[in-house]
Amino acid sequence: MLRRLLTQTDNPDRAGFLWNTIVGVWFTFQPTAISFVITRTLGASETGQFAYAVAQAYLFWGIGIYGMRRYQASDVEFRFTFGEYLGSRVVTTAAMILAGLGFAAWSIVRDPGSADTMALVLLVLALRAVDSLEDVYLGYFQQMGRLDIGSKVSAYRSIASTIVIMLALQATHDMPLAIGLGVVVSVVLLAVMLPQAFVRPLTPQERALTSARLWRLLSACAPLFVATFVSIYVANAPRYAINAALDLEAQGFFSWLSLAPFLITLLSMVIYNPVITRMAVQWTTGDLRTFVSWTRRLSMLIGGVTVVTTAAGLLLGVPVLNAITGWDFGPYRTELVVLLLAGGLSAWGGLYSTVLTIVRRQGWFTVGVVAAAAVGLTGGAWVRHGGLLGASWLYVALFAVQCAVFGAALQTVVRRRRLEGTSRA
């Protein structure tokens, strides 16, 4: 019954797009859904504490996923086996957990009063560790043209565990207990569903794993790891600056306002993630005209999403946030619009970095996010002088730098490929 639910479909491509959309939407809204219950049951300071825990846990999650998903999904020539992808993910997830434990210990030594917050960081990190392990299976199913299967597993697991967390919060008003229960449910569901998700058993070739090739894979994806890790820091730099310069209540307000750029980024990922493998085939086979056409089309779609979302946010954003939280967001209308603009830049940056990975020029991803991180180091000054509006403009600056680097690099790569094709002709 479970196997049939996960694997049977009349149209794998259409089902893959649908379920990938559901997963993408839910992955972004999961912290927001939990924040909603925290906001209603515990208050602004606790919402800010949870937002900080999520930001720190996501930073270490960057170690776990290692930036490998897009590389795996676009590995249409099967250069590495699934066993090697899985083995590497075990290594990186273990490193993620050790890094989180080290950070928590260091923080508590520096400030014993942060013990409760660090406990929350580690619990959210445990949720992200399950996501990290699951992600390598999603990459495999996408390689096999069955993104729908992996997305169903992820959707069922994530939605069920989040519902458990929300119900436990309402019943107990205890954040650590609620998130701990969510971790248990998440692990159990993943362990039950994954064995039923495979249409056929893995072949010995697919399971093959050698340490030399595992480290070769980790080495090949190292630029993506650095870029992914730094990009997560960049995405959360305003939160870190707020934590240093303002209070947890301000962090709570910003956690809701900053939903805007992540919403646009999410909608954009839903647009381009399902076509990564198709675009990789176009690039590999030399169908440059179609490849460029798809890139332009996706860029225009992201522009359209940004315009529509910004207009909706300008008209409805403040009333909706007021209704959801019970707080007054009227003084933050400008911050919301600025963050929506930042969301569009973030989405374009995400698309261009994905395309750079497809064409195996992921080193430029590292260059772009490191340049943005240099701007992020000035975040304290932006927040001290401008408050939450300064944090919002910091987002714009961060993503504008990434967009400029990624876009210029992609134009150069495509131009060179076009010249190479002309010279061969």
From TrEMBL:
Keyword Membrane set for record: yes
Record's subcellular location: Cell membrane
GO CC aspect terms: plasma membrane
Membrane topology: Multi-pass membrane protein
Keywords: Cell membrane, Membrane, Transmembrane, Transmembrane helix
Major place of residence: membrane
Residue ranges crossing the lipid bilayer per the database entry: 16-38, 50-69, 90-109, 115-133, 154-171, 177-194, 214-234, 254-277, 298-324, 336-356, 363-382, 394-414
Protein name listed in UniProt: O-antigen/teichoic acid export membrane protein
Organism name: Xylanimonas ulmi
